[in-house]
Fold:
Amino acid sequence: MLELRDVRVQYGEVQALHGINIRVDAGETVVLVGANGAGKSTTLRAISSLVPCAQGEILLEGQRIDKLPAHRLVQLGVIHVPEGRQVFPQMTVSENLDLGAYFCRDAHEKGRRLDRVWQLFPVLSQRRNQSAGTLSGGEQQMLAIGRGLMANPRLLMLDEPSLGLAPVLVDGIFDVLIELNRQGTTLLLVEQNANVALSIAHRGYVLETGVIVKHGMAGDLLDDEQVRQAYLGY
Structure:
């Protein structure tokens, strides 16, 4: 579904990605792991056209997308849930979700998508008329994911979905990600909780200072001594 070929990204004189190659097949969950500053978020931002590629190609189902504007990628079903949730705090839960379906003009289809979000996150249904800024951190993360689902993603990219959440909420978020993938949504996940992320993924890539140093099946990375010591804490 998605392929990055020799992608390089620069912020001014600083090179953030040094020619990375990544593949995400339809129906997979793929995780990017690495320390802060490794280039994980930059990778997602490059795919979303939020930062330009200095070199290389990004392809969606064989067609280049690295020159397209960000809103065109949303229309193509490439949806990015950014780090830090970034909900619209003064708007209600329902209004935030409605923005996620901005390009959908079919009221019945929009209703179907909304029902799916309510089913996955029942607490959001109970808070539908509540301002997003008054939600807990976990509820805001649910809302950010739900807003992404309202765009009916073919590829859903999530940046640090567990950041700052209590362990019980982390379990709930990852249970939803497992269910989304089971339903057919392809996932590309950036996550510092590498142990949990690799446990639900099919494959993974390890980034260090803008370079992919390891990649393979998620189970193999979990068993890799270097990966365990550097990212899993044991």
Residues 93 and 128 are 5 Å apart (CA to CA).
